[in-house]
Predict the structure.
Amino acid sequence: VQLVESGGGLVQPGGSLRLSCAAAGYTFSRYGITWHRQAPGKEREWVAGISTSGGVTTYADSVKGRFTISRDNAKNTVYLQMNSLKAEDTGVYYCYSTITGGRWGQGTQVTVSS
């Protein structure tokens, strides 16, 4: 089982990024995926989640209306579209599969700064 995040980078406040989480080694469509982030000196926090079919999505209040989670089961990939980025969105972003025992990706750095 492997999860690989990509798409992070440096962006100015107000900008956008799209993160990807590519999964391999299990039946991707059977499990939900969540995104989390960890800012320097802070604990990891949940950002968004998506159900197996993509029909149900949930968001932390801090990102609601700015971030959109989606998935393409044909590509074994989950996306996190991040718009109107703020400095406080800076951190390492991780995806997590709800497969039995759970599995984390290695993370991708997002830095929002002018």
